[in-house]
Fold this sequence. Notes:
The chain crosses the membrane at residues 32-54, 74-94, 106-125, 131-149. The protein is mainly alpha-helical. The protein has one domain (28-150). The protein has helices at 28-53, 62-98, 101-123, 129-145. α1 packs antiparallel against α2. The longest helix has 37 residues, at 62-98. The chain starts with 27 loop residues before the first helix and ends in an 18-residue tail after the last helix.
Amino acid sequence: MFPVSHNSDPGDSNRAIRYWQPGDGVPGSVKVAVMLFLVAAIGLLASGAVMWTAERPVVDDPDQMAYIDTLSTNMRWVGTVQVVTGILVASLIPGLLRGDGRRRRLLMIAAAVAMAFTLVGWVFRAGGLEQALIALVMALGALAMYRPAVRTFFGESPSELEN
Length: 163
């Protein structure tokens, strides 16, 4: 019912994948991924710094103070992971421009960890809406760097379903 690439007409220009060839330069989707991950790394660093420097209020109610202490601890954990993964993502970005498949894999792992902590922090209200936006930007960057047409740029061969 739904057409897939291995059942479609090989002559269909709408489904044709133009693989990267040596001499083509850096593919456009890799450039987009680099920009998205750069924005995400800046967002991670800024968000992590804000989470670490946020001053917690002092109240007289012991139950409310215990809640504030727990929230403050959670914010520092999420902020620490965001700063570490932000630095890691920023340091792995140049590997994308060089076509390093190993660094692309490491960048995906770092982005997955950052997205998990960022979304968990957002769900449990340790951060604001920017947490979800940072995770969305990283997900779009991951999508851009794993497009089928750039497999050859990162040293992989086209899969048999894509031929």
